[in-house]
Design brief:
- The structure is a single chain.
- This protein has one helix spanning 74-91, and strands at 25-38, 44-52, 61-62, 65-66, 109-118, 124-132.
- It is mainly beta and 134 residues long.
- The chain has one domain (18-132).
- The radius of gyration is 18 Å and the shape is globular.
- The model has no long low-confidence stretch (mean pLDDT 93).
Length: 134
């Protein structure tokens, strides 16, 4: 059975361009999705995806947040925990309050400073430079 798609009510010339914020922009971001997995080196991580809560034409961006492991040096563990803590404080999630269901983070808003980078396709995208609290 075939399925029909009708986009005739849209004019391709009126589709807004996707955009990215300039380097150093402070953004009120919303977590649109979040995943957790294990990277190729065996390190568990979470990866939140963000959208600009005020501008729907800004392309989504993400951040890789590795979790501390027993194999980490004290320096690496501290670095990971500081980054997770900054993320937690910016979005007021309560990650350090006990077992946390990452699905509960969806929709949370928080502040960050973004930079410019490229995604795996080579297209411009934003990257988290640092999380902030207002």
């Amino acid at each position: 059975m075939s399925q029909i798609i009708d986009l005739s009510s849209y004019d391709p010339n009126d589709i807004p361009e996707g955009k990215v914020h300039p380097d150093g922009t402070e953004v009120n971001a919303r977590i649109s999705r979040i995943t957790n997995d294990i990277d190729k080196n065996g390190t568990p991580y979470i990866m939140p995806w963000f959208e600009d809560s005020e501008d729907p034409n800004v392309e989504d961006w993400n951040d890789y947040l590795p979790m501390p492991t027993a194999d980490d040096s004290e320096k690496d563990k501290g670095k990971k925990l500081r980054r997770l803590s900054a993320f937690d404080q910016a979005f007021q999630l309560g990650l350090f309050d006990g077992a946390f269901n990452i699905e509960d983070a969806k929709g949370a808003t928080g502040w960050m400073i973004v930079g410019e980078g490229q995604n795996q396709d080579g297209s411009p995208c934003n990257k988290v430079k640092r999380y902030s609290t207002k």
